[in-house]
Design the sequence.
């Protein structure tokens, strides 16, 4: 699809907006300052972002997603276990945003407003979906949804830890990420062990119902 004028204007704003958001928060003031720095008119800014700074939530997240996918292509994912693939994907997603960490923190705070909860959930889900697709997930049953919901939680909690991490090389964040993935893996193992019990219980209930109520 050909790039439209609004796409080009939005890209120019996004190029300079993070520095302003880092200082002034994800605000209209930061947006207006970025528009001025980008040399755009009010009309061009309105064409690019009708809702102002709100429209940059999606663009900022999409840029990080694109950088993440590009970096994943350079990794030998086939040689990794599932947990290693997930860990690598989340790590490169955060590393892609490292130059814009303060802006990402400002965006997270802005999305913390109750009225913006749907947008926050949508963006997290989109990143989780892109990760699973990049890792080769082909599930179409309930696992499709549970994988993305769980990974959305991992992403959100790891980002929160990253924002407060001042350790060398973000080692505290990666240790936290490893622990979260381990928790998920243990939960999945527990579900796998409980499934035969659950199926057996359902069968027993069915048998009991036939004795009580007939077929």
Sequence:
């Amino acid at each position: 699809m050909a790039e439209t004028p609004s796409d080009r204007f939005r890209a120019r704003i996004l190029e300079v907006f993070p520095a302003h958001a880092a200082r002034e928060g994800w605000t209209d003031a930061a947006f207006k300052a970025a528009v001025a720095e980008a040399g755009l008119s009010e009309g061009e800014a309105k064409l690019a972002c009708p809702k102002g700074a709100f429209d940059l939530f999606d663009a900022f997240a999409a840029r990080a997603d694109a950088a993440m996918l590009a970096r994943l292509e350079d990794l030998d994912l086939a040689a990794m276990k599932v947990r290693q693939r997930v860990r690598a994907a989340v790590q490169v997603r955060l590393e892609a945003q490292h130059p814009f960490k303060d802006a990402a923190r400002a965006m997270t705070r802005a999305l913390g407003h109750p009225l913006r909860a749907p947008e926050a959930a949508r963006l997290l889900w989109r990143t989780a979906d892109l990760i699973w697709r990049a890792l080769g997930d082909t599930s179409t049953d309930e696992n499709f949804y549970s994988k993305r919901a769980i990974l959305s939680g991992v992403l959100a909690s790891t980002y929160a830890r990253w924002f407060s991490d001042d350790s060398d090389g973000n080692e505290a964040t990666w240790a936290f990420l490893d622990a979260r993935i381990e928790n998920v893996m243990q939960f999945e193992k527990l579900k796998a062990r409980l499934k035969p019990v659950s199926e057996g219980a359902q069968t027993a209930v069915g048998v009991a119902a036939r004795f009580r109520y007939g077929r």
